[in-house]
Amino acid sequence: MAKKNPKILSIVFAGGEGTRLMPLTRDRAKPAVPFGGVYRLIDFPLSNLVNSGYSQVIVLTQYKSHSLDRHISQLWRFSTLLGNYVSPVPAQQRLGKHWYLGSADAVYQTINIIEDVQPDIVVIVGADHVYRMDFEQMVNQHIESGAEFTVAGIRQPIEQSSQFGVIEVDPEHPNMIKSFQEKPKETTGLPDNPNEILASMGNYVANTDALFNALSIDSKAENTKHDMGGDIAPFFAGRNEAGVYDFSRNEIPGATPTDHAYWRDVGTIRQFYDAHMDLISCTPEFNLYNMEWPIYTNSGNLPPAKFVHAAGDRIGHATDSIVSPGVIVSGGEIHHSVISPNVRVHSWSQVNDSILFDNVEINRRARVNRAILDKNVVLTENSTVGLDVEHDLARGFTVTSDGITVVPKGTVVDD
């Protein structure tokens, strides 16, 4: 049983390899992938935790973690006077000569760190999603319910149940989990809406002692993937000790009806692209401009964006777009795109429906359509990306089945 005013330690899973986001994860960990112009994916869970009042955080890293570690060390620095910190922790190999076998094993291998802190409750979150969430509200429900382990769930249409790990709730106690179903073809809807299910968000709250016991048992089990959602949550559900927190109840200061309970998995190129497009509508699906619950980052000591030339067919402008600091649009045209810092868009060039990472240069008369250009990509004069699928494939670029072209970091595109 958790106590009132508990001591909280937060753990962020940031070790994902992110193979479905290749080539964006070719040289960086998935949580280090840039997002929304000036952010990285890791900034979203860390901002949520800090805004929730939780500022003792360890970040579990594993694959290609250099840029992620550097970002955390440069940006996420707190005053040690109050005992606050965000600390990257590499894979420890404390239980043998192997890396993390799963998310549960990752936590189990850091038990020594948890024991040093001696928290009453551990908040465990992923770093692969874009959302705002007040975790204090989830922790309060966890305490009030008497659960040992609570899973955050997001409502999804019941016809999509085969795409998620589905949480079946107890009809008589809707805050408690009856069972887990992994991507079922058929399932039962929620008591208050038979057309919806609760899908696991990969965020958990656990009483420390109970969590240690479950992880110890899981470490010795044979038929396990050492996964928090697939093994630890069902363990608690089988003992009637697992609660569920309905994300739709989470209230964020400054939220609008449009972006209330927004949550997006950005695990694939299409999901990553769509989440960016959510940012740039007039009434955005996800509102980056809610300063009552800010997403923290550091875009550097950069000058404002600049738009120059306004004569004839040579007009530097951007419409329905996000344009970051340090960008110069010099006689080029940007439409419905997200432009990261220090990008250059030169005369008579066009960028449409695209995402440009830092330091991309689009030279004269070049054209980009429905594409993602990683850092330091250069398009020479008259070059194109995203206009001819066969041409893009022949040059070794990734093209998704629905026509999104991805150009790897540092590529010089010369037609």
Task: Describe the structure concisely.
Homotetramer. With 415 residues, the chain is an alpha/beta fold.
Care to describe what's here?
The chain has 415 residues and is an alpha/beta fold. Helix content is 20%, strand content 29%. It contains nine helices and 32 strands. Strands 1, 4, 5, 6, 8, 9, 10, 11 and 12 form a nine-stranded mixed sheet that branches. The chain has a six-stranded parallel sheet with strand order 14-19-22-25-28-32, with no helix packed on it. It has a six-stranded mixed sheet with strand order 18-21-24-27-31-30. Helix 2 links the parallel strand 4 (56-61) and strand 5 (85-89). The longest helix is centred in the middle third of the chain and has 13 residues, at 208-220. It is globular, with a radius of gyration of 23 Å. The model has no long low-confidence stretch (mean pLDDT 91). Belongs to the bacterial/plant glucose-1-phosphate adenylyltransferase family. Keywords: ATP-binding, Carbohydrate metabolism, Glycogen biosynthesis, Glycogen metabolism, Nucleotide-binding, Nucleotidyltransferase, Transferase. Alpha-D-glucose 1-phosphate binds at residues 100, 165, 182-183, 200.
